[in-house]
TrEMBL record:
The lineage of its organism: Bacteria, Pseudomonadati, Pseudomonadota, Alphaproteobacteria, Hyphomicrobiales. It comes from the Bacteria. Pfam families: Methyltransf_11. One of its GO terms (biological process) is methylation. This is Methyltransferase domain-containing protein. Residues 48-142 form the Methyltransferase type domain. PANTHER family: TRANS-ACONITATE 2-METHYLTRANSFERASE, TRANS-ACONITATE 2-METHYLTRANSFERASE-RELATED. CDD domains: AdoMet_MTases. The keyword Transferase applies. Keywords: Methyltransferase, Transferase. The keyword Membrane does not apply. GO terms for molecular function: S-adenosylmethionine-dependent methyltransferase activity.
Amino acid sequence: MSELGVTINLQRDTPELAHIYEQAGIVQFHHGKFLIGPLALKAGEHVLDIGTGTGRLAEFVAGLVGPQGRVIGIDPLESRTEIARLRQSKTLTFETGRAEDLSRFSDSQFDAVYLNSVFHWIEEKERALREIHRVLKPGGRLGLNVQDPSKLHESRVFLRTAISQAGLGDRHRETHPVFGVTQEQLKALFAAGGFVDYRSDMRSLVDVHSDADSQFKWSESNAFGNFLDGFSRSEREQVRIAFARLVEAKRTPEGIRLERYLRFAFARKPDGSLKEPKLPA
């Protein structure tokens, strides 16, 4: 299901990229709050944040479940987990780990699991969903948002145009690899994973950047070193200049406004009863 057909290398992340992500991560945080609401988290619940990054959203969730609740955040990138651990508390902890292997957790351990702008980085989606299903309690809720290859972010459209204008149009496959999924693919994945009461909707979200360079830095940190991988330094500079020229058309008094499109999806693990209650709308 790879949109661009390339492999994502997690080893390219650096402490510098992690710190840039922490500074600019308020963007992902706001998107994540849209994800958390429909999960209807309650005081005392146990929650797993997969792909927690530097932990800002997990910290917010810990406040929702309160002193009797528990939130665990995992991320495969150690440099980001180190920053997240600065947010740790009695009810909030962070570990290095991946969605495809949740063996450290017991069956039916969590009331809710969420993945905020993470699912499109996971290649083995079926395996990840099986693991999530296992660690959820009967009736437990799953929420995620994911890129849909049928609706590219504006920044990606501008980037591909910039690459073409720089005379490097045959290199677009190396711009920013993701394993996005369409609505039909996602629905099938959830069903195969044993989830019920699936629902999803595409949302348009707006990012505001002061200039093209800040957008570039955000993309580099968000892709943990895979952004424009395979391009030489001079080629990257050509692309950056063309990109900056293009996105100026989106400048407003607040800054450069670029739309980001994410599909938000929710489902739950069956609780085994004859009449299954549905998630709140």
